[in-house]
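Board notes (copied after class):
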Amino acid sequence: MGGMRGVGFSALLGLADYHKDAFATGMHVYYMQRKYPWAEMSISCPRLRPIVNNEMINPLDVHEKQLCQIICAYRIFLPFAGIVVSSRETAKFRNGIAKIACTKVSAGVSTGIGDHESKYTGKQTSEEEGDEQFEIADSRSFDSMYGDMSGEGLQPVLNDYIYV
């Protein structure tokens, strides 16, 4: 109703019972699709990663097997929703899940506070850079990700809409 083309939903898996979080996220998207069938809905599936400078936190682990089950369940339950798998996951996992359920991936990302300009342009800024927010497991560049996807027989799409 606000004129947005689409909306993304997510629960950070590993903070609490991931079964409940994944189920609630899926149901939220389902009900929103019923109310706004013209809107693009997408789901992101991030897992809690080790936190910088805090060895004491022991999250409720969500392993790759469970994450794969969640993503496949989303694909079956919400066949028209986009599914995003972040660079928190390994290249091997992302390559595999892209073939069966995932529709969107990121590449060449930065999670550090204030490090975007230095990372992407090579220019050093006078501003202080902070710690990364979470660990990246797949640090492939855009070109590398594009090549890997093409090599797997997938067709990378960089833009699924065009404004004229």
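Comment from the instructor: The longest strand covers residues 6-10. The beta strands are 6-10, 40-44, 82-85, 104-105.
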